[in-house]
Design a protein that fits this description.
Aldehyde Dehydrogenase, Chain A, domain 1, alpha/beta, binds nicotinamide-adenine-dinucleotide, 2 domains, 7-stranded mixed beta sheet, about 500 residues
């Protein structure tokens, strides 16, 4: 059995705890490897070494750090196939989707190649007689990234790029279900010229996370995962005086107006609802057609598209639309939620519960399911299902549809499909959600903007990647400097204007 350890000081090391988590093959249901869960001593050692390495790394000029990002980006491109296979093997997503996972992470690294421009401070000369002011951005020190299973390449890259190019060292704690990609990315970074110790990958579970949250050397924590854990991590990190940004779960709605192009809307819903088996924080899980006529016409278009979807292992080739979900627990939970939807009176229009694949009977596959006539009191509406299940909530009017989105406790992404500019504009302006799509179902901002939800989808002030990330990973220091040539004034005890 393959044993996966940690990446410490530029080397792969075995774990010493004797505690392991199984890394599953979601397509077969078999254990394919086991990953070591670090001890507190292993974590402490990784942090102490990172703190030493950070001093030299921060003293390296920003352009040199950017060059490491350039070499890293080139290596990611060269290893695209290998990375995609690694992602697919542990996560179960298809190879084209896994390449997208790597690509959207790579785009953040590309922005980090221009990090020096983001790290410039502000200056004002002659703010008073002989007085200049300047504000500089300095790295926080050692920071931590704690990442979820569903984007094994993209989200670690969202953390690594901005943190390291800003001059920090990072302890990366990837999801124990998909540990290999982060370790390989660390190896590539070493090849790209990153000094040893600046990125440490420590595998583990809650014990390691708690160790990170309580460690006095860790200055900032960037978390992505489910909402209860995001809220917990934010609270504990903040009460320990750390900077924290914690991104949580989602329930993303797409409103379909009567004037929308319904074929395009149906295509968008199928891609955004079932891609990656619905295991995306920006998946659309609720369709909100406005008016029964729109709803009937939409369902009529959705059903044949959904019934055509091919579900299977990534190894079956590129015509597979989506793969298994991540674990047996996840599959059982999704099936339980579908059952609850039926019991609570929603209409199950496409039923994915009985899905079976010859040769993969023990895999964690769930067929695509579509519900109509879902109401907000039902469990399938209230919970983030994180599976290939799309719920339709019919709205009587645009205002009702908007209210539904606004009343939902999550606020990660949302979309509207319409041909009317006024409606689209009104929606984008009023909705209380962080990322909005207009005739665009998954509005993940490009890497030179920043990504983040509202309400229970994010805790903390700044978003991930883009300009916000450089603010998050640096502290501002403002210097007031005076040179005495030409100044006659003696001592003053007054607090006063500089002029
Ligand atoms: P998760 O919350 O179970 O795990 C995320 C990380 O937290 C992992 O590294 C895990 O080891 C750690 N963790 C788990 N339980 C913990 C505990 N009790 N104490 C401390 N640490 C703990 O999330 P997941 O199942 O890996 O990922 C899916 C979730 O992530 C979904 O809710 C999805 O919406 C969300 N997500 C959000 C975003 C976003 O940017 N908002 C992006 C991707 C995924």
């Amino acid at each position: 059995m393959q044993e996966i350890g940690h990446w410490i000081n530029g080397k792969m090391v075995k774990g010493t705890s004797g505690r392991f988590a199984d890394v599953m093959n979601p397509a077969t249901g078999e254990v394919q490897a086991r990953v070591a869960l670090a001890t507190p001593a292993e974590l402490d050692h990784a942090i102490e070494e990172a703190a030493k390495a950070q001093v030299g790394w921060a003293a390296t000029n920003p352009q040199s750090r950017a060059r490491v990002m350039m070499a890293f980006g080139a290596l990611i491109n060269q290893n695209m196939d290998k990375l995609a296979e690694m992602v697919a093997r542990e996560h179960g997503k298809t190879i084209p989707d896994a390449k997208g996972d790597v690509q959207r992470g790579l785009e953040v690294i590309e922005v980090c190649m221009g990090a020096p421009a983001m790290l410039k401070g502000e200056a004002m000369d002659s703010a008073g007689p002989g007085i200049d002011l300047y504000a500089i951005r300095q790295p926080l020190g050692v920071v931590a990234g704690i990442t979820p299973f569903n984007f094994p390449a993209m989200i670690p890259l969202w953390k690594i790029g901005p943190a390291l190019s800003s001059g920090n060292a990072m302890i990366l704690k990837p999801s124990e279900r998909v540990p290999s990609t982060s370790l390989f990315l660390a190896e590539l970074l070493q090849q790209a010229g990153l000094p040893d110790g600046v990125l440490q990958v420590v595998n583990g579970d809650k014990d390691v996370v708690d160790g990170i949250l309580d460690h006095p050397v860790i200055q900032g924590v960037g978390f992505v995962g489910s909402t209860p854990i995001a809220q917990y991590i934010y609270g504990r990190a903040a009460s320990n005086g750390k900077r924290a940004q914690c991104f949580g779960g989602a329930k993303n709605h797409m409103i379909i107006m009567p004037d929308a192009d319904l074929d395009k809307a149906a295509d968008a819903l199928v891609g955004a609802g079932y891609g990656a088996a619905g295991e995306r924080c920006m998946a659309i899980s609720v369709a909100v057609p406005v008016g029964d006529k729109t709803a009937d016409a939409l369902i009529e278009r959705l059903v044949p598209r959904i019934e055509k979807l091919k579900v299977g292992p990534y190894t079956a080739g590129n015509d597979i639309d989506f793969g298994p979900v991540i674990t047996k627990q996840s599959k059982d939970r999704i099936l339980g939620l579908i059952n609850s939807g039926v019991e609570q009176g929603a209409k199950l229009v496409v039923d994915g519960r009985g899905f079976k694949l010859q040769g993969y009977e023990n895999g964690f596959f769930v067929g695509p399911s579509l519900f109509d006539h879902v109401t907000p009191d039902m469990e399938i509406y209230k919970q983030e299902i994180f599976g290939p299940v799309l719920s339709t909530v019919r709205a009587g009017s645009y205002d009702q549809a908007l209210k539904l989105v606004m009343d939902n406790e999550y606020g990660n992404g949302t979309a509207i499909f319409t041909a009317d500019g006024d409606t689209a504009r009104d929606f984008a302006s009023r909705v209380n959600v962080g990322m909005v799509g207009i005739n665009f179902p998954i509005p993940v901002p490009l890497s030179y903007f920043s990504f983040g939800g509202w309400k229970k989808s994010a805790f903390g002030d700044l978003n991930q990647y883009g300009p916000d990330a450089f603010r998050f990973y640096t502290k501002t220091k403002t210097v007031t400097a005076r040179w005495f040539s030409g100044i006659k004034e003696g001592a003053s005890l007054n607090f006063k204007a500089l002029d």
